[in-house]
Structures are given as structure tokens and as C-alpha cells.
């Protein structure tokens, strides 16, 4: 087994697509499984498969995140440049929080139009690409 992608239900598809395109996602395809539902599959450039699905079901009313969902993590290679670019696009990223580590790196956060939180992370120099059981 493996994880394929995450799906978010969104209130306003156009507004969400504007946000996620500014974040760097590109649209791969749209699927309409029934007349009330539109699925939009997204990926970052260089990703060969969809990693995020936006689910638009206007009849379900506004999105309510509740208390179960926490956040999505997106790795960036240059956090400072990413934050500047997102601010220029009007996305209002939070200030960079550097890691307490002399190797650099850090995090910033941005919130999508429905309230989903996204952590942007630049790993410190020498850190593995992602998190695994082998943290050395």
C-alpha cells in the first residue's frame, strides 16, 4: 500500500485554484463523477502524479474544518524566496521561523481560503529529503 494524495473539499473552486496555483501547483485533470461534484487533481511541477485533490460540492454548503484536520506540509528549496513570492501573490505567509540549528532551514505557514493550514518547510543542510524512520 501507499498514500496517493490528499483531498480537500473547497467552498469556492476558482478562489481555491487561484490560491493553489500561486503556491505552485498545476492542474493535471478534472473529473466530474456526478452532476454535483467536480474533482480537480493538482501536482507541483516535477511531480508525475496528483498529490492534492480539490473536491467542489457546492450543495454541501461551506467547508467546516472541525477539529480533526491539522495541516499539510510542502517542502520548498528556498524558503525565503518562497515567502517573498507568496506575499507578492497576496497569500500572506507568516514570518519565517528558523530551526534551532546552525545548518539553516525553517518553516513558514500559509492558510488557504477555506482555512486549511499549509506548513512550508526548508530542511536544514544535510537533512534527508522528507522524514523517515532513519532521522540521522
Automatic annotation (TrEMBL):
What protein does this entry describe?
A: Aldoketomutase
Any single GO CC term annotated in Swiss-Prot or TrEMBL for this entry: cytoplasm
Domain VOC, residue spans: 2-123
Q: Which InterPro entries match?
A: Glyas_Bleomycin-R_OHBP_Dase, Glyas_Fos-R_dOase_dom, VOC_core
One biological process GO term for this chain?
Answer: methylglyoxal catabolic process to D-lactate via S-lactoyl-glutathione
Signal sequence, renumbered to the chain: none
Pfam families cross-referenced by the UniProt entry: Glyoxalase
Gene Ontology molecular function: any one: lactoylglutathione lyase activity
Coiled-coil blocks: none
Amino acid at each position: 500500500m501507499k498514500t496517493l494524495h490528499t483531498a480537500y473539499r473547497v467552498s469556492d473552486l476558482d478562489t481555491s485554484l487561484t490560491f493553489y496555483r500561486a503556491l505552485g501547483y498545476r492542474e493535471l485533470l478534472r473529473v466530474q463523477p456526478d452532476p454535483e461534484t467536480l474533482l480537480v487533481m493538482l501536482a507541483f511541477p516535477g511531480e508525475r502524479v496528483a498529490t492534492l485533490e480539490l473536491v467542489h460540492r457546492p450543495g454541501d454548503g461551506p467547508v467546516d474544518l472541525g477539529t480533526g484536520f491539522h495541516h499539510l506540509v510542502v517542502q520548498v528549496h528556498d524558503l525565503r524566496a518562497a515567502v517573498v513570492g507568496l506575499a507578492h501573490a497576496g497569500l500572506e505567509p507568516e514570518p519565517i521561523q528558523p530551526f534551532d540549528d546552525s545548518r539553516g532551514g525553517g518553516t513558514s505557514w500559509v492558510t488557504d481560503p477555506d482555512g486549511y493550514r499549509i506548513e512550508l518547510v526548508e530542511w536544514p543542510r544535510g537533512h534527508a529529503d522528507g522524514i523517515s524512520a532513519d532521522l540521522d
